[in-house]
Sequence to fold (366 residues):
Amino acid sequence: MSTLEIRIEPAPERPPGPLPDELGFGRIFTGRMFTQRYTPERGWHDAVIGPYRPLTMDPAGLPFHCGQMVFEGTKAYLRPDGDANLFRVERNAERFNRSAQRLAMPPVDAAFHVEAIERMVALERAWVPTQPGSALYIRPVMIATEASLMVRASRSYLHYIVMSPVSPYFAGGFRPVSVLISDEHVRAALGGTGEAKTPANYAVSLYPTERAISRGYDQVLWLDANERRYVEEAGAMNVAFVYEGKHIRTPALSGSILHGITRDSILRLAPDLGYGTSEDRIEVAEVLRDVEGGSITEVFNMGTGAVLAPVGRLGFHGRDYLVNGGQPGPVAQRLYHALTAIQYGRVRDPYGWTRVVPLRETTAVG
Ligand SMILES: *Cc1c(COP(=O)(O)O)cnc(C)c1O
Fold:
């Protein structure tokens, strides 16, 4: 499989000049996309980096009623030396394949997938934003392509990668988010697809999230589906609680929690900054008691998009619980700076998490 070659087709270059100041998140896309196709006879084939363009799909295609789709999210960060860093992208590729397996889709060659990302980033170097905290967001997707009204796995698939220059999530510094704890709706159940990055998990979150927003919150904090008692995730991010400004506690991966790479990195980094960490079952009643009593000094969310997002307010059964007076706390700030310093290559990476994509010299194409 790794003998695959990527064909490079002519594609429009970005017009010279700076990128807009306000990139937003996932609003602007680069001029190229990667695609390859799968059939049982040929395996993955026809790998191309060509112009970004709409997909042509059969309206009876399996994704539209069986939802056979998975995706990923990772970023390329501009280094001070002008090259780009990818962050734990191999792990991202492994998770893409685990998601695919759960949705009965064929795996991609992980090394080839990473190579496709590297080639894309190098070709689209003019789209890597330079503003502090900005990045080139990378969105790999796999989707069923066979036309059939049956309920079964597709025989053919499309794997593609698009990229979007994104503004820093918190452009003017941290703005704490508010979360409404839901014991009415759930995101994912044990044995379901909570560990897979598949659109179904996000589709079921939209209605409860819209309702939370109409009540003045930013996101929903999800509890376990079985007992509606243990904390799972917040929005589409993992969540952590800081005790007494020195211990970081996060829900253990329960089977319905997404295995976040940011979460994993924070757990690895925190002890080196002098914080204790633990992963266990965390009861929502205990969290509310500890926020109220003051032993939980900070709450924050973790994910590639924002990296870290402090939580300033928790709502539950008509009551609000302020965390740290609704202000971002020092632990979240410190972890954010330590992790982003590695991602952007501002400090040496002692963990082997980053992979440099040379952007300064002309890389051979074709
Ligand atoms: C992507 C995602 C995360 C965060 O994962 P990262 O690898 O840190 O970006 C957490 N929860 C959900 C539901 C997600 O989709």
